[in-house]
Amino acid sequence: MATENKSLDTRLLLGALVGLKNGDFSVRLPVDWTGIADTFNKEVKKNEGNN
Fold first, then answer.
1. What is the pLDDT of residue 4?
2. pTM of the predicted model, to two decimals?
3. Mind listing the pLDDT tens digit for each residue in 1-48?
4. Nearest CA among 42, 45, 51, 40 for reference residue 16
5. What is the 3-state secondary structure of the chain?
């Protein structure tokens, strides 16, 4: 897994989590957030197909 020294935008992360909690399965995190975004976006996509 590649690691970079980028700061995490916690407001963007919170917004995506709140969107997901509220049933918005179109939310995604930036793909350059390796690890965090990969996992989050895969889970959202799984849930998107179930609704």
1. 53
2. 0.69
3. 444 546 789 999 999 999 999 999 999 999 888 898 999 999 999 988
4. 40
5. CCCCCCCCCHHHHHHHHHHHHCCCCCCCCCCCCCCHHHHHHHHHHHHHHCC
